[in-house]
Amino acid sequence: MKKLALFVSLILGASMALSACSxxxxxxxxxxxxxxxxxxxxxxxxxxxxxxxxxxxxxEYDCAFRDLSTLxxxxxxxxxxxxxxxxxxxxxxxxxxxxxPARFQVACGPSPFDPVTSGTAKALLATLVVK
Length: 131
Fold this sequence. Notes:
Immunoglobulin-like, four-stranded mixed β-sheet, disordered N terminus
C-alpha cells in the first residue's frame, strides 16, 4: 500500500512539474465600456498564448490585433481577434506569438467592429508586447 501511495505521489508531482514547465501562457484582460485592463500585456515570443477577455461592459464587443510597425492585422493572418464577447461573458482565443519581438495594438469596439474600416478613434486600446 505504501508503494502505491508513493507511486501516485510521484506521478502527481511529475504532472504538476510538467504543467508548470509548459508555461500556461494565458493573458487575462477585463474589458469595460471605457477601458481594457491592463492596458499593456506581454507574451513570450514563439509560444502558444491564450488571450482571455472578460467583458464587464454593457454591450457586446469585438477585439482585433494589429502590428504597430506596419498597422496591418496580426501577421500571416487576414484577421485575428475575438468576436461577439457578450456583456458579462468571458471569451478566449489561442494564437501562436511571433518568434521575434514585436508590438501589437489590441483594439476593441462594439460589435460589429472592424479595426480596418472602423478605425481605432472610437476603440478601446491596449498594447500587446511580444518579448
